[in-house]
Write a structure and sequence with these properties.
- There is one protein chain.
- The chain is of the alpha+beta class.
- It folds into 2 domains: 73 residues, Alpha-Beta Plaits (2-Layer Sandwich), CATH 3.30.70; 83 residues, Arc Repressor Mutant, subunit A.
- The protein is 38% helix and 36% strand.
- It contains 5 helices and 9 strands, in the order βαββαβαβαββαββ.
- The strands form 3 sheets. A 4-stranded antiparallel β-sheet has the order 2-3-1-4, with helices on both faces. A 3-stranded antiparallel β-sheet has the order 5-9-8. Strands 6-7 form a two-stranded antiparallel sheet.
- β8 and β9 form a beta hairpin.
- α3 packs across α5.
- The protein is elongated and about 60 Å long.
């Protein structure tokens, strides 16, 4: 499973955290830089970053955060928002590993789901319209965040990770 975390801290050696999150298979969702000043005097920059990381990597994330003078806390989100973010990460992971254009059926065949006990089960392609609709919503959100690119091939939509 994955956990959604909030990092708060300065910009000092922040790139170490970014690199580690990428190395462990996590994803940075949002970065906000706050400029702290008093009157006309600049005091500091403060970062607030939302990230998704595998739950077994939380201790390493905490260690790096404390090394760079920051701290991490787990975010408690409403269940639908939490599930959407985890689904986005799984889709991102699938598209990164294949590094090619995939249609919705291909993505569904590669996806897994977790039952109420946390056990992984493969999603079948039996045409469950609710699953297809949820996948399309996630892909649309990823399009709006400029994470994926979309093309139409033979009247079927295909998706691929955007290259930097």
């Amino acid at each position: 499973m994955y956990k959604i975390l909030l990092f708060s801290g300065g910009v000092y050696k922040y790139e170490l955290l970014v690199e580690h999150v990428d190395d462990v298979g996590g994803l940075i969702i949002q970065e906000d830089v706050l400029h702290i000043s008093r009157g006309t005097s600049f005091l500091a920059d403060e970062l607030r970053v939302i990230l998704i990381v595998p739950s077994n990597e939380i201790s390493s994330i905490n260690s790096i955060a404390s090394d760079i003078k920051g701290h991490v806390e787990e975010l408690k989100l409403e269940k639908p928002v939490h599930e959407n973010l985890i689904d986005i990460l799984e889709i991102y992971d699938i598209l990164c590993k294949t590094n090619s254009w995939l249609n919705i059926n291909s993505i569904m065949k590669l996806m897994t789901s977790h039952d109420e006990n946390g056990f992984i089960e493969t999603i079948d392609d039996s045409g469950n319209t609710e699953t297809v609709q949820k996948l399309e919503e996630c892909l649309d959100l990823m399009l709006s965040l400029k994470i994926v690119d979309k093309r139409t091939d033979n009247s079927e939509s295909e998706y691929c990770i955007l290259k930097d």
